[in-house]
Amino acid sequence: MPGLAFAERTHPGLKRPKNEDALGHLLTPWGGVFVVADGMGGHRTGEVAARLAVETILGHFQEAEPSPKALLEAFERANARIHQEAQRPENRGMGTTATCLLLDLPYALVAHVGDSRAYLLRGGELTLLTEDHSWVAERVRQGLLSPEEARTHRWRNVITNALGSFPQARVDLLGLKLFPGDTFLLCTDGLSGVLEDRTLKEVLKNFPPEEAARRLVELANEWGGPDNISAIVVRVPEELPQSTRPYALPLEAAQGAPVRLKLGEEPEELPTQVLEPKRPGLGWRDVLLILLWIVVVAYILLGYFRP
User: Fold this and answer.
1) Of all helices (H) and strands (E), which one includes residue 248?
2) What domains can be seen in the chain, in order of their start residue?
3) Transmembrane residues, as ranges (predicted)?
4) Fewer CB atoms inside 10 A, N or C side of the chain?
C-alpha cells in the first residue's frame, strides 16, 4: 500500500526468561492487518496461545474481505482454536490477549480482548481506543481506584477476558474514518504499563514508525523492563482513497470519531450500529399497574365531586 509506513518490535524485557508476546502483520490491497498478543498460562502455553491468535487472525484475512463481521469471525476462530488446545491437561490456563488493527482505507476497524492496547495519535493528541479487560481497569471505571493506584496495584495483571478462556469470545469492536497521517500504536502491557501516555505521545509525534517502535521498546527497558514488550506503530498515508464500503458505519465513525460497534443479530441487517442503552418497553404488569392507578384516581375524584 503506497504511503503506508509501519514497524514492529518485540523484546522479552529484563525480568522474564522468555518472550510470551507475539505480533504480526498482513499487507493487503485494501490496507493491512496488524496484531499484537500477550500469552498467559505459563512459559510454554502462553507463547503458544499468543502465536495461535496472531496466526489465526492474519490467516483469516488471506481470503476474507474486510468488514466488522469478518474481524469478529477471525477472533472467534482464534478463540475456538486456543480453547480447544487449552482442554489438554498440560495446557490448562492457556489464554492470550489480542488487539488487532484492520486498515480498510479510508476506514479503520479495531478488535480487542484483554489488556493489550490500541492508541491513536491524531493532530498531536493521543487517544486510547481500547478499554482494558482487567480487574483494576474495571475498578477504575467504577471509581473505586484511581489510575495511579491501578498502575501499582498487586492485582494489576489479573485479566478478566482473554482468548481461549471460554468457549465463546467477548470481543470489543471499534470503527472510525481515517484522517491523513493518523498514527496507531498497538502494544502489550509490558509497554503501556511502564510508560506514561505523555511519553508515548512525544515519541509517536517526533519519530517515524521504525524509530518510534525502537525507542518505545528501549524506554520500557530503561524503566525496568518488568514484562515482555511488544509494539506496532502504523502511520496511514497522507493521501487516502475516497471510496465507500459495503458495510455500514455509524455517522460518528464515518466522520472520524472512534465509535464502539456491535454486529446486528440478523445476517441480512447492517452489521454495525452505535451502542446505545436499551430502552425497556412496557410489559403487561406495567400496563396493569397504570390501569389500576387510573381506576383509583377516578374513584377518588368521583367521591370528591359527588354531592
Assistant:
1) none
2) 5-278 (3.60.40.10)
3) 287-305
4) C
CB–CB of 52/38 below 8 Å?
A: no
- For 70-119, what is the HEC assignment? HHHHHHHHHHHHHHHHHCCHHHCCCEECEEEEEEECCEEEEEEECCCEEE
List the chain pLDDT tens, one digit each, 307 residues. Answer: 678 999 999 999 999 989 999 999 999 999 999 999 999 876 578 999 999 999 999 999 999 999 999 999 999 999 999 999 999 888 888 999 999 999 999 999 999 999 999 999 999 999 999 999 876 677 777 777 777 666 666 656 677 889 998 898 899 999 999 999 999 999 999 999 999 999 999 999 999 999 999 999 999 999 999 999 999 999 999 999 988 788 888 888 888 899 988 764 333 333 333 323 333 455 556 666 677 767 766 766 666 556 5
> CB of 217 within 8 A of CB of 7?
no
The residue to which cell 470489543 is assigned: 172
